[in-house]
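Quick entry between incubations.
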Amino acid sequence: MSGILKSSIARKVVMALSGLFLVLFLLQHFLINFTSVFSATTFNEVSHFMGSNFFVQFLLQPILILGVIIHFVLGFVLEYNNRKARVKKYVRFNGSANSTWMSRNMIWTGLVVLAFLVLHFYDFWFPEIIHKYIQVHPEDPTRYYGETVAKFTDPVRTLLYVISFIFLSLHLLHGFSSSFQSVGWHEKFYKGMRGATVAFSILIPLGFIFIAVYHYFNQV
Amino acid sequence: MNLTLKIWRQKDANAKGGIVTYQLGGVEPDMSFLEMLDVLNQDLIDKGEEPVVFDHDCREGICGTCSLQINGEPHGPDRLITTCQLHMRMFKDGDTIVIEPFRAKAFPVIKDLIVDRSSFERIQQAGGYVSVNTSGNTQDANAILVPKDKADTAFDAATCIGCGACVAACKNASAMLFTSAKVSQLALLPQGEVEADRRVLAMVEQMDKEGFGNCTNTGACEIECPKGISLENIARMNREYLRASTK
Ligand code: HEM
Ligand code: SF4
Ligand code: FES
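Done. Structure below.
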């Protein structure tokens, strides 16, 4: 593993694959969360399945956490190497003349997403783990909807979620199409790729924002 | 035109260096950027000062020697040109122009605006060649048929003049556009197939060793490249690299 990761291109490809994997996860997560807008019962059923299925809990979940860790650790390595590659900075650097803001600030949008993940784990993941594996409560398959929705009574939390999704969108606006280039698929040969990644990068975070804001206004 | 020039001056590789401001009058819009610097240098010489040292050779956009980061962009604000092809009509009377050397750890400054780009040569030497039978029975190159589209794409890659603007423009000082052009021009042709795997592995390894940064697909290189070398070449090199390293 560390052998192939000595090469800049190999690291890029692992970065891209882990990013694409996270994009897939994001879609899955969105689809499940979205059920909470129209059916508490469906949301409870799916959440109960995800929360109690052995395969999901002990295979998919660790893979996902590993994927996130690989992705942001490689992101830090990338950023560190790239800073080292230009020790003496330009007095004047006109980045906006030839590249997008998103492409130049992946580390910052990524860091905001990482900070969000910490908050998100504090909000949902740790309480789940404590509930299920430490306090070992008997499973109540109808608890998920109420627990989730209750989190969005807090305007500060709702606002933090909204801001984080905006940064996620900015991260994906560059990252999603960039990952195809990294694995060798130039957009010239995959017509519609750019459009599809841009649509995804705006619509999915917007959807998450909608869910958070919906629950906030639904109970106030 | 009257201009304020803010130029990086550095006595030698080890000096600290810094920006020095010059006022320059009598600049014609039809002058090239290098001719404008020639005028400044004549002024400096007349005053008994040390002229500004900068790289140039052909002055017609084919050799890639002229460099310069002008107002934050390699080769200045115009597109698909080198600095020797940049004209002063791109600027306005009274403008302030910041002129710096290309900056990258792998392009150390030698003096003033001249940087050492021999790291590019070492990347090329690591694998940018084809083996030719020199036993006396050398096959005529035209005997190997090449599809027209392949030949065109290879030629486009081969128009890279090794100027280093891609590295200078890149926020990561990455040399992926240059290296991928040099890999592609051979990888696309039957003559280049023999060493294809070895070539891409060796050239990428050398590129990493020289201390260039890693690509994050910002696309700045493609936009600033005087020859319009496409990012498609980077995608191709990534494919070549993956294929070669998984064999
Ligand atoms: C759900 C969360 C995330 C998703 C879906 C995601 C997605 C992506 C994708 C698809 C890429 C493009 C990969 C490539 O071009 O090779 C990428 C790149 C990157 N990500 Fe993330 N990412 C996420 C979280 C993070 C986090 C937490 C960080 C941590 C700081 C981060 C930092 C970076 C960096 C530095 C890059 C490289 C920039 C580039 O290659 O252009 N990402 N991300
Ligand atoms: S790829 Fe373009 S910018 Fe880079 S060295 Fe070649 S000609 Fe110059
Ligand atoms: S001096 Fe030859 S390209 Fe500018």
